[in-house]
Amino acid sequence: MSTQQTNKEPAEEIKISAPRFGKLQFRIVGIDPYMQHRFSKKVTGDILEKMAAVPSPTQNAKKVRKPKDIEQEYIDAAHFDKEGRYGIPALAIKSAMISACRLCKFTMKSSKLCFFVEADTTDAQDNSQLIFIEGEPEKDIRPARIGINTMDIRVRPIWQAGWKANVRITFDEDQLSAKDIANLLMRAGMQVGIGEGRPDSTDSDSPGLGLGRFTLEGA
To answer: I need a surface site. Which of 9, 132, 135, 142 has the fewest CB within 10 A?
Structure first.
């Protein structure tokens, strides 16, 4: 009676090291004015109302436009917490850093897991995470294009150049060094920007409005 021998390779041992996180704080300074335009609850409600509306024979009739409430539109466009303190969306800083990875040959997909911008507070209207911004904004009123042939007036808060904020970042030390994070944040500020009219505009045909760039204090 013969026995058949089988040669099995030993299973490869998988070793996963515990994460090592470092923490850094930077002070950023606005090179350009910074403009906000948050997606207000009113706009969300209007969209939901249109989606739920029952079509009618007069649906295509010209609608009567409601008077524009300049002050309310200005308030709705700003990010602030329950105590009325203005803030920059923490996600805006992280998104700018992720976008800057394209300039550094570091994959954007991987970068999402490697660093996090810590929040100081939350938005009173949508609970998004915010970091405090120093100073008071001004009203910016200017025309904006909606679609191809439609124009409207937009009222948004704007901070003039020189605005400041403290940015706290937690990062994976096995993937990036402290210097990497500092350089990536600087690239995000000087080449990508944040807010409305930034160089890295979501509109592929627009180079931005010369807004939203920043640098590191003392850099």
So the answer is: 9
